[in-house]
Specification:
Elements: E1 2-5, E2 9-12, E3 15-21, E4 24-29, H1 34-44, E5 48-55, H2 60-71, H3 78-87, H4 97-121
Antiparallel strand pairs: 1-2, 3-4, 3-5
């Protein structure tokens, strides 16, 4: 899960809190507020029950995609950025056009490299 900060752009959450609210399971990233805030929040509100805190782990590809989103300064598209960073799905919206073009160029470059190597073997 990603979170947006004023200083660092998007960051990857280290933990999530899983709780139920009126019987429905919810999950939220744990940010600067910390775990104790969530414990007190769940204790304070009727119908809200803490289930667990889960530590999150990320692949190098996810970390690289997060850096890419921050490098392109994509702001205000939290859901799309989260899906791209975590799942690699490039949305069809203007802020992601440069990323999409770069990925297409990389695929074409890789295919050309393979073709050149094949031709050199002949």
């Amino acid at each position: 899960m990603i979170m947006q900060t004023a200083q660092q752009g998007y960051i990857l959450a280290d933990k999530t809190v899983i709780y139920t609210h009126n019987g429905e399971q919810c999950e939220q990233p744990v940010g600067e507020e910390g775990t104790q805030w969530w414990v007190e929040f769940c204790d304070k509100w009727e119908g809200v029950h803490l289930v667990e805190f889960a530590t999150l782990y990320y692949t190098q590809e996810q970390i690289d995609r997060l850096e890419e989103v921050n490098r392109h300064n994509i702001v205000g598209y939290m859901e799309e950025c989260n899906d791209y960073v975590l799942n690699g799905n490039i949305p069809n919206i203007l802020p992601f056009e440069n990323i999409k073009i770069q990925h297409e160029n990389k695929k074409l470059s890789d295919a050309l490299d393979v073709l050149i190597l094949d031709l050199l073997e002949v």
